[in-house]
Structures are given as structure tokens and as C-alpha cells.
Specification:
With 288 residues, the chain is α+β, with helices and mostly antiparallel strands. It is built from 6 helices and 12 strands. The protein has an 8-stranded antiparallel β-sheet with strand order 5-6-8-7-9-4-3-12. A two-stranded antiparallel sheet has the order 1-2. The longest helix is centred in the first third of the chain and has 31 residues. It is globular and about 65 Å long. The N terminus is likely disordered.
């Protein structure tokens, strides 16, 4: 059994790698700058330092005269310092925490599902048959609040009818990386449906096994195809592929055990197509 180690459509180009590297470096520099500002703010606006600054060039005879004014200035300065520190602390917390930390350079919210899984608004299922295994159900939870358009369209394709995932296959398997399916109208990975899973954003990090994302063609276009990552670390997909759901471990369903079994089937090179079809024999929506 031979498996490729390439990502779903194409490897990142040198320019894309450089862009991602520079973006992360800018974010890191911004975080350090905010932290430095917090410490400097505490030192610069402390009451003790303000008293020293206010009395440094005042004679002993006039110190008492301005004592009440100095106290008033100290209080105002300290209040300003607290407000400044609070603002900077909030910005720093938003940047540093892994729980939906903000990237200030683009104003987007990056969500790490390994730390804080987005709210699941819809559940769909795929009934899968392959090899000598009995048909097993795979349940997928969808992030409708964060990815409303992708979720609505995925639900539509799982509901059934003339155009649905029923009868399609998992057409490509990359061991320890992804399984790819959803090519409506073709078993070769060329979908006849275009722009269905167009992403709302690319804000969800690929940091948890079982995430479901839209496949992206080399020209950037999106269709009905999706992939399920089989490892926790899939950083190569961040900011390039849009995650919109995750495999659930509902009682009586296949869960990630089923995904991993599919990821180990024998494949034909060079496209890594399963030698024996892995078919979605049925699909539907669980929360209608």
C-alpha cells in the first residue's frame, strides 16, 4: 500500500509560505509590543513615581503648599494608568490566548478548536460502505454561527434529493493526513457542482483531528468536495482551506475510528484513489 504525503490539492508555494511566516512574525511582534507597553505603563504612571516627578524641583517650603495638588495629580495619573493598562491588557489577552485570539493585522478572529470548539448548530450524517465492513454512520457537527453559508449548503447536499452526497465516494485517501469526498457527478474527484462550499472565512485553525473542510482547487475555486483531517496537526491547511464542521463521536456511530479505517484502505497511485470504492450510500440531516 503506497500513500502520498501531499496536501489535498497542491503544496504551498514559496510565496504563500513566506506570507504565512511574515504574518505570524507580525503577530508575535505585536504581542510583545503590547506586553512591553503594559509594563512601561505601570512604571510610568505609578503614584510613587508621579510624586517624585512632581516634587523633584520644588523647595521644602513649597512642598506642603502643593501637597494637596500633588495628591490630586497622583490620583488622576493613576486613574489614567489603570484605564490605559486595562485597554492594553484586553488587547493583549485577545492576542495571546488560544481561545479565539485576535490577529490585529487583519482584524480577524482565529479560532483554535483544540482549545475551544465552535458551537455546533447542525448535525448531518453520511452512511458509508466499503470493503467487508457493514454500513456505518458518520455524524458531522457543523459550525453554523461562524460558517453560515458553508453550513447551509452542506446541509442541503446531505438532505438528499436530485443533488446530494448519496452515491458519491471518498475518492482520495492520504494516509495519516486526510480522506477526501463529495465529488458529485464523478468518482474521479472532479465535481459537477461549483461554488457550493464557498467559505465564509478561514478563521478556524486545523488543530484537531476530525475537522471537515472544503477542498480548494489550484486556481482557488471551491465546489462540493470536502476533506476530513485524520491528525491533530494540519497547519498546512490554515488560512488556505476553510473548516466548517467536525466528526462527532455520537453513540452508535463510527466516529474517528471509521475515518481512520478509511484512511488505511489500499490505494492506487498516483492519485491515491481507493482500490475498492468507499461509498456514501446515504445521507441526511439529524436536527430538522
Amino acid at each position: 500500500m503506497v500513500h502520498s504525503s501531499s496536501p489535498p490539492v497542491g503544496a504551498l508555494s514559496l510565496s504563500e509560505l513566506r506570507f504565512l511566516y511574515n504574518k505570524r512574525m507580525r503577530s508575535l511582534v505585536l504581542q510583545l509590543t503590547v506586553l512591553r507597553s503594559i509594563f512601561l505603563g505601570v512604571a510610568a504612571f505609578s503614584p510613587a513615581k508621579q510624586r517624585t516627578a512632581n516634587t523633584r524641583h520644588v523647595s521644602p517650603s513649597t512642598t506642603l503648599l502643593f501637597a494637596s495638588e500633588n495628591v490630586s495629580l497622583d490620583r488622576r495619573s493613576f486613574a489614567k494608568s489603570i484605564a490605559s493598562i486595562t485597554t492594553m491588557s484586553a488587547a493583549s489577552a485577545a492576542l495571546i490566548t488560544n481561545n479565539q485570539s485576535a490577529l490585529a493585522d487583519e482584524g480577524s478572529i482565529i479560532i483554535d478548536p483544540s482549545v475551544d470548539l465552535p458551537k455546533i448548530t447542525n448535525k448531518v450524517y453520511l452512511d458509508i460502505k466499503f470493503g467487508n465492513y457493514k454500513t456505518k454512520r458518520l455524524v458531522i457537527g457543523l459550525f453554523g454561527d461562524i460558517m453560515p453559508k458553508a453550513t447551509a449548503n452542506f446541509v442541503s447536499l446531505c438532505r438528499g434529493g436530485d443533488v446530494s452526497y448519496a452515491g458519491t465516494t471518498f475518492y482520495r485517501v492520504i494516509s495519516d493526513m486526510t480522506i477526501q469526498g463529495g465529488a458529485i457527478g464523478s468518482s474521479s474527484g472532479k465535481s459537477s457542482i461549483s461554488a457550493v462550499l464557498q467559505p465564509d472565512n478561514f478563521n478556524i485553525k486545523h488543530s484537531k483531528a476530525g475537522l471537515v473542510s472544503a477542498v480548494r482547487n489550484n486556481d482557488g475555486s471551491i465546489d462540493s468536495r470536502f476533506f476530513i483531517q485524520t491528525a491533530d496537526d494540519a497547519g498546512w491547511a490554515d488560512e488556505r482551506y476553510a473548516a466548517f464542521g467536525i466528526v462527532l463521536e455520537d453513540e452508535g456511530t463510527g466516529g474517528m475510528d471509521l475515518v481512520k479505517k478509511i484512511s488505511k484502505v489500499d490505494v492506487k497511485t498516483p492519485q491515491n484513489n481507493p482500490k475498492d470504492p468507499v461509498t456514501i450510500v446515504g445521507c441526511g440531516v439529524l436536527d430538522d
